[in-house]
Amino acid sequence: MAKKVAVLAVNPVNGLGLFTYLETFFENKIPYKVFAVYNSIDIKTNSGLRIKTDDVIEDLVGHATDYDALVFSCGDAVPVFVQNAKKPYNKLLLQVIQEFATAKKLMIGHCGAGVFFDAAGVDKGKQIACHPYVKNTIKKGIYSSNPIAIDMPFFTAAEEHELPLLMPEIIKALQ
Question: Where are the domains of the chain?
């Protein structure tokens, strides 16, 4: 039986990245639920497309054991987080990442995901691929200049354009 995935979508989310995950999970019959890292299920992509998620991050708190993996679908996450770091949903973002890591779940993401894994303090000594513009923010993990990095339980890609390289490995781990 396929494993169940919690997908985090920031507001605004990178549509290409989010839809790459969701389409691949759908095609491979991997159950998932999308949680907005926001105070509403109504978010948008960074190109302006409005979408509705399944739930909000507040309702994911305390439910790491219900899932096998956490996906951080990036967008304009880093600059938007900096502007809204004190918002309750952003505090919950770091809490949820910590809960999933403590529960030893697969941690998946691209672009700025590594920044948030690092900020949550869960990537110590692990190879993390992330966008080169944010590589200097990786302090606990080890920045990888490769397009993708797999260092269990982390599956990371530098940018959404590298997700096709990473998705087959994610699917193997989730089936």
Answer: 5-174
HEC letters along 144-174: ECCCEEEECCEEEECCHHHHHHHHHHHHHHH
Task: From 164, 66, 148, select the one nearest 113 (Cα to Cα).
Answer: 148
Long-range contacts, 111-115 (Cβ 8 Å, 24+) = 111/14, 111/17, 111/74, 111/77, 111/157, 111/158, 111/159, 111/160, 112/74, 112/77, 112/78, 113/72, 113/74, 113/77, 113/156, 114/138, 114/141, 114/143, 114/156, 115/77, 115/78
Q: Which CATH superfamily is domain 5-174 in?
A: Class I glutamine amidotransferase (GATase) domain (3.40.50.880)
State pTM to two decimals.
0.95
Residue 80 host element (H or E): helix 77-83
pLDDT averaged per 10 residues in sequence order, the chain, 175 residues: 91 93 97 96 94 98 98 77 84 96 98 93 97 93 98 96 97 96
